[in-house]
Amino acid sequence: MAVTLKDVAKAAGVSVSTVSRVVRDAAYIDASTRQRVLEAIQALQYRPNPVARRLKYGRTYTIGFIIHDISNPFYGHTVIGAERYISSVKSPEFDLFILNTGRDPKKEKRAAEVMLARRVEGIILASTATLECLEAFKELTIRHGIPIVSVDNCLGGFECGVVSAENQTGAYQLMRHLLGHGHRRIGILAGPDAESHAQERVKGCLQALLEAGYASDQVLIAAGNWSVEDGYRISQGWLKSESPPTAIFSSNNLMCMGALYAVQEYGWHVPRDVAVVSFDGIEFGTFLRPVLTTLHYDWERIGEEAARLVLEAVMKGGYREQPTRYVRVPVQLVIGESCGCRFASGNRRRVWEKGSHLHEG
Amino acid sequence: MAVTLKDVAKAAGVSVSTVSRVVRDAAYIDASTRQRVLEAIQALQYRPNPVARRLKYGRTYTIGFIIHDISNPFYGHTVIGAERYISSVKSPEFDLFILNTGRDPKKEKRAAEVMLARRVEGIILASTATLECLEAFKELTIRHGIPIVSVDNCLGGFECGVVSAENQTGAYQLMRHLLGHGHRRIGILAGPDAESHAQERVKGCLQALLEAGYASDQVLIAAGNWSVEDGYRISQGWLKSESPPTAIFSSNNLMCMGALYAVQEYGWHVPRDVAVVSFDGIEFGTFLRPVLTTLHYDWERIGEEAARLVLEAVMKGGYREQPTRYVRVPVQLVIGESCGCRFASGNRRRVWEKGSHLHEG
DNA sequence: TAGCTGTTTGGCAACGTTGTCAGATAACGT
DNA sequence: ACGTTATCTGACAACGTTGCCAAACAGCTA
Predict the structure, then answer these.
(1) Residues near chain C (nucleic strand), Cβ < 7 A?
(2) What is residue A292's predicted lDDT score, i.e. its pLDDT?
(3) Strand order in the sheet with A62-67
């Protein structure tokens, strides 16, 4: 069906080896022969068969991307960044094999096996790995030598790359800004204890609180699983308690939306009755009222860096010669109205214009 | 490096053919032999090499997914749906090869060539194909026999599958609902003229307007390119005109956000001064104030149907025996506050609970 | 002329599968 | 005893590449 080297060889009146050499731009080819072969390739519209190449080289040139939820725009941006980097690498060209685990723990558990079956050469992990899965991924690296780069989560127990935002200093900045408005009682919506970036964000918060001289009974901390539901549930509990917080710090965007919903349902107003800020922006968040005060960072860049790290490791044959590497992506405080700043809404600029986020300093 | 049939054969003391037969579950295998082979497979953790299989069969078992913007949650849902369907099909297993074209016309133009180079067997097209690209894709189908399924856009000039929402009847419903509030002047933010679903949505609008006895000078129609910018620009123009609309119908979510922004910037209030409704919901749109009145439909389902159609065509060897097929996904009117209904906000339910959208009738 | 080096080619065996073909063995009816 | 059939197995040639090896030939030097 498709045009092969053999067809080109016949058309050009040379051997298959010669055509292959021209295609691969190898040395020792007569100029006139090359010309003839190139013409035949052009005429027949020959395209090398990547499958045959892969078999020959015993490699798949495939990077697996395990992702929790592509429909979350932030992860979508990560995919875009990773795809951009990977498609920018020519010879050899790599494929991205995307596996969306959704919220299905079964699928997440099977992810490692799927990756092995597809024989991916490296993995980008943008999924909250449970302890059980962690073991499986550890095995992938240790027994099969498949390098792993984790997005926004520092996996323990084995060598892997990590790309994440400046979690601690970011949370510190955001919390500091919030505290500038003088709050008596702060609620912190944390992520799962087991996840390193959740810890880092809490750490940054506590650092700011400590510096500002807050007492432990002025601070509420509760861990959610990053979901809207948990943000809602926890915030609701706080609001109904006898001393509700005057400000809520959410560790991610989804929980923040849950918090906003809870506040609104309770009949309170943001920021008049309770201030709300969030690590992570919200896609099209400027259309929310009040506009959120958030910590903004470039998710495409995160995807790009993850792809770079994993490809570098693949080229070098795993992490044997490359120790765990961390890449930190800078964050930027984006001040909106939800923190209680006196910012007039007329001051805002259109957020869909790239790079137009307001920032402090 | 990796375990091959040969290794298993040696371990089990049989020939490669025999192992292959066991793996493929072929007939004529002695029970005890099969047992021995299976044990060897288990012991050595043998996994068939998909690359070798593909080469042997001369197929790639790959479906290309050309997507305009994965970071748009709606397209993200489409990917999830397509991925779910494709991964549900076993023997043979197919891969999804995702190509994000972004807003880069160059990349979009090269998409067809990339798909040919990767030798995909079918294509899902969720990208606004320019006329130029259309020619390239036409060639893919006609000359190379690669079936194409278009998402939300009916490509002309060649046989292909189409999956889209009930555009016309949906727009009709939504517009009818809007008209129920008695408007004197309606602005319609349309999509590009060249795209069939843009036309269908306008058609539905006009149908409702005609039925309601609206005169042509009461209706404004302007075509945008689905972007926030265009929605903003066009709406701004309308608002500044001498007789601004009392209601705006947006053909998609992004343009609607632009419209909301323009209205707000102009100092008007939705829905008091101008009502706004939109085809397409907005991810987490219930967190917007006022809550939008929209037309909701299941994007995962769209991706699923697209994958089903394209796989069916691939199995049958192109569209030769299968005429163009349309799949229409039902829509649902979701009534919020932006249309001017008296709906109290307390009535709303939490939208992140699946399937909890309010609907009429 | 013979021997060397350098360039240009084609042949061929892989890579890991699959499926055909033929050979081997056992079980059957005549 | 024979052929016939059914069951089981191994050898082998593909699939489209690549890269090694050797062959062929040119242009050198001695």
Answers:
(1) A 13-18, 21, 28-33, 52, 55-56, 58; B 1-2, 4-6, 16-17, 20, 23-24, 26, 46-49, 52-53, 55-57
(2) 87
(3) A95-100, A62-67, A122-126, A148-151, A161-165, A326-329
